[in-house]
Amino acid sequence: MIFHKAIHERAPFNERLIIITQKGEERWVQSAGKAIEKNGEVVKVFGTFQDIHEQVMTETKVMENQQLLTALIDNLPLNVFVKDLDSKKILVNKSECEYLEKSPRELIGKTDFDLYDEEVAKISREEDLEVIKTLKPILGKETISIKKNGQATNFLTSKIPLFDFEGKVSGLIGISMDISAIKKKEDQLRNLINLTSIQNKKLINFAHIVSHNLRSHSANFSMLLQFLKSEDNEKEREHIVTMLTQASDNLLETLENLNQVVDINTNINLKKEQLNIHDTIVKVQHSLTAFFDKNQVQIHNEVDRNLVVKSIPAYLDSIILNLLTNAVKYRHPNRNPVITLITKKLDQKVILSVSDNGLGIDLERYGDKIFGMYKTFHNNKDAKGFGLYLVRNQIEAMGGKITVNSEVDKGTTFNVYFNEESK
After folding, report:
1. Do both 306 and 213 map to the same domain?
2. Taking every pair of C-alpha atoms in the chain, what is the biggest distance, in angstroms?
3. With contact defined as beta carbons under 8 Å apart, do 413 and 406 qualify?
4. Could you read off the pLDDT of 20-78 as tens digits, one per residue?
5. Are residues 206 and 308 in the same domain?
6. 335 is a domain residue
7. Which are the contacts of 416, defined by CB distance < 8 A and separation ≥ 6?
8. Where is the Histidine kinase domain (predicted)?
9. Neighbour count for residue 280 (Cβ, 10 Å)
10. Does pLDDT of 382 surpass 60?
11. With a threshold of 0.70, does the pTM exceed it?
């Protein structure tokens, strides 16, 4: 065919061909030549045959190896890439393309600055230069890749220097495993361990409270019964019976309080709902109208009217009610109570702040006891020291937390952190 074209079309040729030798062997040759003319007629074809059989066999082997390598890395559940000395990608596998949502053609020749957030790209380039300069691999390093669209992914990345046939460094091979799901599970496990630790501490604390309170009531009953047994005076006996009745009422109240705490920490059937905080505050405020009017309370509900959080209805009502009544109980004797409720967002999560102008609390002295059961810090006959303990248990049961800021004679602010993202 090439000779025909050379003769009839005067076309020079330079082709790879397979020839059969005298021994019947097939060998690859490089054939180059052209037609020689004389008086407008082709008189001969001049050319050469160069034996390139070994070269072709080597190239074929390399190509087969490349195909094998490509098939291998394309089926690995890992992101694999090869970079040159300028950190330009010269090879990418299927997983890398799928992660970056681009074809191999779109990725070849690109650097991380073309594909990732600039800060992430800078860190990656520094790692590349370290591997190329020191010839030491980076193995199993946890990294975070942030794409141009802001999507972040956790990877376990290794980078290994790549050498050419002369032993000189020519780039690097990178292998990254997506560990985002593992990191999420680790966070969940860590949170579970923390929650278990907290619950264990609460259980121990609750056991101490139950033991202490029931022992106190038992001792009181025992003493009153001894007095009754030894007393002959009828009026004194009636007085002791009255005290026994009061002690019985106190015991029942204590048991009811303890039962509430048990319900909060064991009831897993209560479901969270999307609740409007502003409307809930208004509802609680209306239920306490007479109480607030009697104490000349001013309430400033500055919560966003459209703000919704995911919460258990009964708990949210109880939390707001206890914080409002607590502010009134500990009002300053020289001024009418003023209560302000506001909300703000932190990482898309809501913080409800309830501030008052009351007596305030000495946090240095009582800071670690504020949310304890039956802990009171002022001479208030209406204070029982259970409301804040209940509030903390309810908000923690929903995965949130409560903190306090206070200054003596100026007032107190309670901050309720809801653990669900708001809408």
Report:
1. no
2. 157
3. yes
4. 888 888 999 898 888 888 888 877 888 888 988 889 888 888 888 778 877 888 888 89
5. no
6. yes
7. 319, 323, 351, 352, 353, 354, 391, 395, 400, 402
8. 209-422
9. 20
10. no
11. no
